[in-house]
Design brief:
With about 230 residues, the chain is an alpha/beta fold. The protein has a single domain, classed as Rossmann fold (3-Layer(aba) Sandwich). Helix content is about 40%, strand content about 20%. It has eight helices and 14 strands. The strands form three sheets. Strands 4, 5, 6, 7, 8, 9, 10, 11 and 14 form a nine-stranded mixed beta sheet that branches. Helix 1 crosses helix 4. The longest helix is centred in the last third of the chain and has 24 residues. The chain is globular, with a radius of gyration of 17 Å. The C terminus is likely disordered.
Length: about 230
């Protein structure tokens, strides 16, 4: 991936031809972003970003390319197996990759007990709040799709209440976070731990991006890739 150029329709295009839409939190927001990309000419979809770990064996920074995306009600969508195999083979040259099932949950799973319950009930390795929306658009339009997510908070991590209270639209408001930390000083250590996890996850995402495995020319000569 190279530098991006902002288009007039709000999408961005990278130097390799990748179309990018940044969605808000949740499956509905991700579906809207995916539809915008399809309308702009994308021929395959990628749900790209971070996830929470449900499997206790997965450390922060683990790259997940799941074979399926599931909802709490059991609705399940399979990712494109050939594309997944190609991308996984390239990434595996330098990093471990896991991926059986990703759970898309309507709300963030904030505590250790909730993650353990989700792992037990669904068997999913990781959880996010967006990939199901991308999967639904892909299936409805007959397009292949893939999920590439990296673990940021592990199954043993509790999301600090200060962070949750200071978050809006997928971003953390720093001034509000500082206010919340004054009210909840016990959240400081979990926040510092989460910051370390975030750095590990970002390093993994950058490493995946630098492989070029998701570029349109990598998948098929005429494909438009979206993330």
């Amino acid at each position: 991936m190279g530098p991006s150029v902002k288009r007039g329709d709000g999408l961005s295009i990278l130097s390799d031809g990748t179309l990018v839409a940044v969605s808000g939190i949740g499956a509905a927001a991700a579906a809207r972003a995916a539809l915008a990309l399809v309308d702009a000419g994308a021929t395959r979809l990628v749900s790209w970003g971070m996830a929470g770990g449900l499997d206790p064996a997965l450390p922060a920074g683990t790259i997940c390319i799941p074979g399926s995306v599931t909802a709490r009600d059991g609705t399940r969508f399979g990712t494109d197996p050939h594309w997944r195999e190609l991308v996984g083979a390239v990434i595996l040259r330098g990093r471990a990759v896991v991926g059986r099932t990703l759970l898309t949950n309507p709300l963030a799973i904030e505590d250790v007990a909730g993650k353990a319950a989700a792992f037990r009930d669904t068997g999913a390795d990781v959880v996010d709040m967006e990939s199901l929306g991308v999967a639904q658009v892909a299936v409805s339009r007959g397009l292949p799709f893939l999920v590439v997510r990296v673990v940021v908070d592990t199954a043993a991590d509790r999301l600090p209440e200060a962070v949750l209270a200071a978050s809006s639209g997928g971003e953390v408001r720093i001034a509000r976070l500082l206010q919340e930390l004054l009210r909840r000083p016990g959240d400081l250590l979990p926040l510092l731990r989460l910051a370390r996890r975030y750095r590990a996850a970002m390093r993994a995402l950058v490493a995946v991006a630098r492989t070029g495995a998701l570029a349109p020319t990598f998948a098929t000569p005429s494909a438009s890739r979206i993330a």
